[in-house]
Amino acid sequence: MNRPLLLFALAALALLGCSTLSHQDPLQVTVVGIEPLKGEGLELRMMVKLRVQNPNDTPVDYSGVYVKLDVQDRTFATGVSDASGSVAGFNESIISVPVTVSVLRMARQVMGVLDGKPVDEIRYSMSGKLNRSAFRSLRFQSKGEFTLKPLEQAAREETT
To answer: What is the pTM of this model?
Structure first.
């Protein structure tokens, strides 16, 4: 086989491979509940319930979940689960993941809040992945903030 023909065949196969890759929209994952769990020693354990929405027409099968919660740009809690299941296309599921917060992380968060500067808003972010196979996973992330001013104002109004 001559060299130009071989290069053309390899290029055609590469283009065919790229065209068959699926271009899916990312999963939407939000925290819908947190329940306390029994911890060990110097840790706090919680069951975090995640609502996973699949905005695609194909189902997402998974076997294993990882989640990391950050508060004020610092890791607050992490967790894993060997849960498995499927999120149908254009559908949603609730997945429960136990997470751990160490006392050291909690102390670091409190010290960060009590550094003398007023805190008007709390930034949070969540990232993680749903394991699909030994070599593939679907990553997700979300972030936001909530303001403390209305809470402070409500507290002042109750005391006056």
So the answer is: 0.75
